Amino acid sequence: MPIAKHTAVINRSLDALERARFAEPPTIGEIAVACAIGYLDFRLPELDWRATRPQLRDWYEGFAKYPAMQETRPANLT
Fold first, then answer.
1. How sure is the predictor about 2, in pLDDT bands with cuts at 50, 70 and 90?
2. How many CA atoms lie within 13 A of 28 on its CB side?
């Protein structure tokens, strides 16, 4: 599959997550979403998903403060 198609799939997934309601306290689903978003930041920083998905951005920024997320964050991400 060409890169453009993969990118389109990622963007559609992020669009769906922008509309999602997340549980509190987080379930395994929210943990999986946060890990996937963290992986996008690590591997595809040029995607700039935060610019067009403010609700998802705000949720992730809060979730990323959990100690487990901080302890497993790649060293090269700020």
1. confident
2. 0
